[in-house]
C-alpha cells in the first residue's frame, strides 16, 4: 500500500507501529479493534492508528508519565518502541470527542 504513494522507505516504521499498536489492543483489551493508516502529503506525515473498545489510555499515551520497561522484562516494550521511533504520538478517548462507538485511538506518526 505505501509503495503506491512512493513511501517504500517508511514501510518498516509503519509496520512496527501497526504491529505494536495492534498487539497492544489484542493483549490488553476485549472486543473489536481496527487499524487505520493515513498519509498527509501536505504535512509530510504518515500516521498509523489503532482503535479499540477500551477507554483506558496506556502509560505514555495519556497524561500520566511514560512507562519504561526494565532491562530484565520479557514483554512490555512494544509501546516504548513506538514512542522511541515516532516523530509524534498520542492517544485519546473517543467518548470525550462525542463518538457513539467509544473506546480509544492510539496513533504514531513519522515524517515522510
From TrEMBL:
Matches recorded under Gene3D superfamilies: Histidine kinase-like ATPase, C-terminal domain
Signal peptide from the UniProt entry: none
CDD domains per record: HATPase_RsbW-like
Keywords from the UniProt entry: Kinase, Serine/threonine-protein kinase, Transferase
Domain of life per record: Bacteria
Molecular function terms, GO-annotated: protein serine/threonine kinase activity
Location of the Histidine kinase/HSP90-like ATPase domain: 15-91
Protein name in the entry: Regulatory protein
Amino acid at each position: 500500500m505505501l509503495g503506491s504513494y512512493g513511501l517504500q522507505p517508511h514501510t518498516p516504521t509503519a509496520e512496527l507501529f501497526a504491529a505494536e499498536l495492534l498487539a497492544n489492543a489484542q493483549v490488553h483489551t476485549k472486543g473489536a479493534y481496527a487499524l487505520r493508516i493515513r498519509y498527509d502529503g501536505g504535512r509530510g506525515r504518515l500516521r498509523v492508528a489503532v482503535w479499540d473498545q477500551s477507554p483506558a489510555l496506556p502509560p505514555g499515551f495519556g497524561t500520566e508519565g511514560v512507562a519504561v520497561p526494565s532491562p530484565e522484562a520479557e514483554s512490555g516494550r512494544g509501546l516504548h518502541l513506538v514512542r522511541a521511533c515516532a516523530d509524534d504520538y498520542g492517544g485519546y478517548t473517543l467518548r470525550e470527542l462525542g463518538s457513539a462507538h467509544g473506546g480509544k485511538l492510539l496513533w504514531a506518526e513519522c515524517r515522510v
